[in-house]
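Good morning C.,

I know you're traveling, so I'll keep this short. The sequence:
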Amino acid sequence: MQHPSQQPSFAFVAASWTALLAGFIAFLVGLFNANMQLNERGYYFTLLVYGLFAAISVQKSVRDKVEGIPVTGIYYGLCWLSVLLAVLLLAIGLFNANLALSEKGFYGMSFALALFGAIAVQKNTRDMQSARPVVAD
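The tokens, ready to paste straight into the viewer:
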């Protein structure tokens, strides 16, 4: 089941990459400047990378289902569970952290921005791929 799609505009592609990089870099700069132990920094960094991977996996599996590409229920469920776990673990970690409320908000917002950017970049990648003409070799 092929849905006609048009190639995303350059502005949207640039905005998506900017959102991903801004969220990712802001989160990392915050970790670098934070007065935390190394294991805490590792925890938050791992959650960021895990969350980005999970968000990309959700977008891919949702898009695959829409396009009629088979996706197993267990994989689809695990993708959503992974996103929820990453967000939940970040929320629990920030709730229990000895950080100022503004710092907690900063980490939450940069995490959300990075996740949004990752989903948008993945969507743009699929849109650009499906907008290319099919060439038979």
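Safe travels,
E.
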